[in-house]
Design a protein that fits this description.
Cytochrome Bc1 Complex, Chain D, domain 2, mainly alpha, globular, 371 residues
Length: 371
Amino acid sequence: MKVRLTTFSLAMTSLLLWTCQPEEVPACTDCPTDDTIAGAYNPTPYPLKVPAYFPPPIVLPDNPLTVEGVELGRRLFYDPILSADSTQSCSSCHEQAYSFASPQRVNKGILGLEGSRNAMALINLAYHPRGFFWDGRADSPENLALKPVEDHLEMNDTWENVEKKLRRHGHYPLLFRKAFGIATKSEIKRGLAVQALGQFMRTLISGQSRYDYVFWERKGFPTDSEQRGLELFFIEDNQDLDHPGCSHCHFNPFFTDHNFRNNGLNAAATLADFPDKGRGAISQNPFDNGKFKVPTLRNIALTAPYMHDGRFASLEEVLDHYSSGGHPSPNADPNIRRFPLSAQDKKDLIAFLNMLTDTAFVRNPAFASPF
């Protein structure tokens, strides 16, 4: 007996054969084939070198410094993997040669868009008791590291994507295990990445300038010009001199009081008139409008241009601004007032400021790129 297959039966047979085929699953490009990280976890405490004339640094109890954590942080600081197109790293805007600041007035991110503020020097962050960035919007070096990755004016990535890149990387999983003891690649998250970055940034301690050798360690003597500059700098309303001094805001040993002040950069008829609200945009206190973080003057000769918007190209311009008394506003700092500065005074003050340059810091191989 011959069996005839009708068109209908052929179609049904084909359908049954098709439905029995295994479903085709797309390749998982984001998932490691083996999530386990092999390797030992035996962290070594980091021997932080602190000058005897500095107080103890601020270290978070839940993020102690280790050799492995600092090294991971250093690699992440210099690795453009944190940016969306892998072209920019933290070090793109914070260069060691410039005391981890930038020679640009403002920097451009990966989209070619300019930021609105100058890159601050990343030194002695382990001693900041309050607020990071010019407006103090981050409360620790760890949170300082968290924000640029997702800023459209900077790296323009997402932490979710960065986490995937770090998990897929050939070396980072083991480095994260050595630093934090994680057992799987899926445990690599932004919290650990910024902890490592925070550890590295806390090691960036600068305290070996000529000023330190002369005045703290009693090695050598200042020049006549440096001594005159020092006396002008540390005047505290000496009634014999019509000069407010600089150390009200920039005092030893860090040459900053870590506060937020209005130093007369912009005229403002009311507290609402500042073009950049600065600290006020974060605190939501109108009296903080126009106030910015007092920067350290350590390595100041290396960190031009100056002020939060990089408006002054030289220290001479900075001194001209202060001697002019700045611009009036309701909350200008009381120490911002007109005072005379001769050409020799400016020369002497700059000679003193140059004493604050720490050449060992900007040449320290422990802070340089590991790549």
